[in-house]
Each structure stands twice: as structure tokens, then as C-alpha cells.
Amino acid sequence: MNRKEFIKKGTAMGLGMSFLSMFLESCAQAENEARELVPQISTDFTGKVLIIGAGAAGMSAAYFLERNNIEYEVLEASGTYGGRVKRTDDFADFPIDLGAEWLHTDPIVLSEILDDSSITDNIELITYNPQTYSVWNGKKLSRQNWMNNFYSEYKFKSTTWFGFFEKYIIPHIGAKIQYNQAVEEINYQNEKIQIKTAAGQTFEADKVLITVPITILQQEMISFNPPLPTNKIDAIKGVEMGDGIKVFIEFREKFYPDMIVMGGILGALSASERLYYDAAFGKDVEKHVLGLFTVGENATPYAQLENDQAIIDKILGELDEMFEGKASETYEKHIIQNWSKEPFIGGSYPQSYENRSQNIANILEPLDKKVFFAGEAIHDEWQSTVNGACESGYEVVKNLLGILE
Amino acid sequence: MHFPDKFSKAFKACYRPFFLLHIFWALFSPIHAQTPISISYFAPYFSQPGAKIGSSFVLTDLDKADIERQLSIRPQVGFFSQIGSNQSYFLNAELSLLRKREGKKRFQEFGLGLGYLMDSRNLGPVVDLGSAAVSNGSRENSSFITPTLNYSLGINPERGPAYQFKLFFGKKFSFENKGELFFGFETGIILNHNK
Q: Which of A83, B50, B97, B128 has its CA 20 to 30 Å from the CA of residue B71?
């Protein structure tokens, strides 16, 4: 669910709920029952599963297999795990999510993803409910604080999504991840599946789970033998994966509101988002860090610039126009994460689908019951979210093992 | 406008039972044989559900020809919430001019309101990763003054309670801000409305 859908659903829910349940909820925190996402299963499968991609979906699938003592290996094209979950520790006095940052659902999902009652840690979250808003319509910056009544979700207070995986998932699966192994070819015509990587290595497995971003499949960076069915190719190409970029800038003072909505008030409701936001909101830190988060067609004018200098010049120019030169005057440093140009990623997350349900079903359809697909883009309910990626990993790996049973 | 924590805690502690008792009193007390009581579903910003309960005291009758006009003062208490984020406690008074044609059931009201709003914002929950328990973290309280303009349309049948639909629009002022929009709707019943 993207932010637009989140806001829409949240608003509808707010209008529809009776005041009494609200009152009771205020008196005592409602306790939702946690789902069992990583159950202990019994299976006759004795083969090996090869997971392609160590993003959220791949790490979760690996965690599931690890917990169930099933042989697996993870091939990651880049030099690190995380995929679109990424962190910088040394930019400010708090860790910054360069990729996925928000938690768009009930925080209980963090416990559900781990599904491990032996963990004794607590995680502190921020209710991300920016209090001061401005809207920039291209000419004028207007204060619109009333918007804070329509939007609220969560962020990590002192860790990040990357930190969450690093601390609770990677210790279980880290030894099974092979880095710098960009898969180029998957041959599934024989009983054993053969996987060739750009590094020249060949791997064999009984089942393969592909969790790479949809852009990698669209760009045909992995070839399949036999080739993918036409309906699957069409479904993959029918997903519009937009550009995506995040930029963080440190300033000597906070001259900006908690959030700046770009493109007028309706800009906040667009699937193609462009927001400047106080990245330190609620974090009890000293540094003043402003973030730019933009995806889809609004991200393209930034993401497709020739280099990082051109990007930061454009952003400081925009901010100077809004704040009468204050940005350049108090600028300290910046960091740019251009997801559109990130190797093995190539974009943000899906902006739209042709025939959404049918397309997702077509992409999810396994190849000869041997090659499976998972990831946030093909999770029907929580598309574009980290928890959606994790749940997709869990669901598909269960399907993979269920077929074997 | 930040009051000391002790004030906020005491206010919140007293407010909830007071609010529930008020509703109970409104529904079951015989006092509204003389005094109208309104009970409303109240949604500031159209997105934050809550309830408001109030009474009405006539200041003066300003009847003119076949039009009934009545100036009243209306003290009210309310509670509303943004799910998972804010809880707001609301004390309000409205100066209201009712206008109704003689013999008609439909009435209109124009009102000016002045309220005190205490907003309690949840700064963030804490998740116990092992047990999946989610507990409330710390809260921050802010106080606001809320002048509003109100317009209501209502029906006052011969028998049974009157009911009305109200739109309100105003500003929320604190020491920290120059005022932000405060708007929404309210719908509910009025017991013993001029009966």
C-alpha cells in the first residue's frame, strides 16, 4: 500500500469508527493478536533452495528456511544485503534510512516478521505525525498546518529498517549469503536448476526463489531457459516502476517546517510524491537534517540529472527560492541516494500496474513448480512496503515448500 | 501553549470520567425536562471522530413577526481522537442564534464558539519484539484556544428529539503558532429542544 492509499484508508477508517471505540482505545492500548508468519513446518523436502536477492523479501525467505532447517543459499548481486533497505551511520548524529524509512502499518508487524518469542528487546518508534506543514506551489510557500490532522504513521526512533534486519535477521542467515553474485542465467529445464552468475560461477538447486526488484526482470538482466512465458513477460512489463531518489542535507539551523509538500495541496495525495521533510523529527538529536523523498515522475527531474552536483544544485536552488536564500546560507553537507541509478535496483517501487490483480498473479505463478517469484511489488496488500516484501517472502516460500509436500 | 505536566495529567484524569458522567446524565437525568441537551458525533477535520455533549441556556427571545429567533449560550464538552496519534479534550461555549419560521419544523442556527482544546500527542509506541506487545510511549500535551463560526440546519419534530447537522470553521491558536484551520462537522440529537 502506498502512502496515498494509506492516507485514504486511514481517513475512511477515522470517519467510520464510532467514538466509543476511540474512547476505549485511548484508555487502554488495544492489543492485536500477532500473526504467526514464521511457523515451524514439517516437510519431506530434502533439497536445496537458492534465493536470488538479499533484499527484505530474500532475507525473510532465508530466515524462514533457516528456522525450518532447510538447506538454502542466497546470491546477492551487490556487495551488501538490504536491497532498497539501506542506511548511513556517519552522516548525522543519528542513523539515516537511505531507502525504506517509514512503517506504514501496525507496529506489531515488527514482532510478527521475527516471530521469535525468545527475543527480549523492545523497539522504540516515533509516531510520525509532522506538526508543521508548508505547501509550495511553485511560486509561494504557504503554511498549512491543518494537514497534520490527516497523516500519521511510524518511524524508528534510534534505529532504521536496515538496523532491524542487521540485528535480528542477518545473524541467522548472514553466513549463507554470497555477495557480488549477479545472476545472469537460470536454466530450469532439467531436474536440477542451474544458475550462472556474472562472476562466472555456477550454482545448482532444487528450487529457486527470485526476489530481485521488478526492474531487473524488466531489463532482462536474468535470462531464463526455457524462456519466460509470454503472459509473465507482459505482466512484468505492465508494472510501472518509477524513478526514486532520497537526498539528505544538513543545515546549521532549522529554517524549514516538519514537512514541505511540493506541487500544491494535491501534491500530498499524488502517488508520484515529492516531499521535503525534517529527517530528525521526533529523534531527540542535535543535527538539522532535511530530507527529500521523491518517487515516480516527480523524481525523474532529479534522478536523471547527469551527476550528484547537478542534483544538489537543483535542490538548493529550490530551497533558496522557498526560503529566500537560507538554504545556501546555512548549508553544511549532503548525501544523495539515487535509487534510479543504483546498480541492481534501478528505481523506487511500483507506481501503477496494468490489470493489477491479474498481473500480480501472473508474476507469482511459478515456472514448472521450480522457480518462484517474491517481493514487495507482487504482494497484493502491502505493495511498496518493507513489511509487504517480508510477507511476500514468507508466503512464497511456504508455497514453494507446500508444493513440495 | 504548554502547561505543566501535572496540570495536563490532572486535566486528563478528571476529564474522562466527567465526560462519561455527562453523557450518562444527559441520557437519563430528568433535568432536560427544562433544559435542552445535545449529544453529537463530532469530527474535526472530518477525520478525527469523537463526541460532544452540551446544554443550552436561552439569553433572550428576539421573535419578529412570524419568525422565532432565540439567542442562547451553549456550554459543551467534547473528546476526539486521531487514531494512534492524538487525543483531544475540548471545552467549548457557543453563542448561538436560532432562527425558525413559526409552525415549521426546520430551523437554522448561526453561532460563534470559543473553546479550549488540550491535545495529547502520542510521541511513539514501544514494541516488545518477543511478546508482540505494543505499549504507549510518552505523550506531549499542547493547549489551544479555538474560536469558531458555526452553521447548523436542524429538524425539530413535534414528538421525539430534534436533530441537527452542523458545520464549523475556525482557527486553533497557541503561543507557538499563528493559528491553523479548525473545521469539521457535527451531527446529533437535541433532547427537549423547545418542547
A: B50
Number of neighbouring beta carbons within 10 Å of residue A214: 24
**In chain B, what residues touch A27 (CB-CB under 8 Å)?**
16
Rounded Cα–Cα distance for residues A87 and A186 (Å):
31
Specify the pLDDT at position A11.
Answer: 36
Q: Which of B172, B135, B139 is nearest to B8 (CA)?
A: B139
Strand partners, A126: A155
Distance, first Cα to last Cα, chain A: 32
Q: How far is A47 from chain B (nearest CA, A)?
A: 31
Cell of A85: 533497505
Contact check, Cβ <8 Å, A129/B85: yes
Pairing of strands A350-353, A239-241: antiparallel
Q: Report yes or no for ipTM above 0.90.
A: no
Convert the pLDDT of each residue in A129-168 to its tens digit. 999 999 999 999 999 888 888 888 999 999 999 999 999 9
List beta partners, residue B88: B80, B119
Task: Identify the residue with better confidence: A268 or A380.
Answer: A380
Asked if residue A87 lies in contact with residue A98, where contact means CB atoms within 8 angstroms, the answer is yes
Rounded CA separation A79/A85 (Å): 14
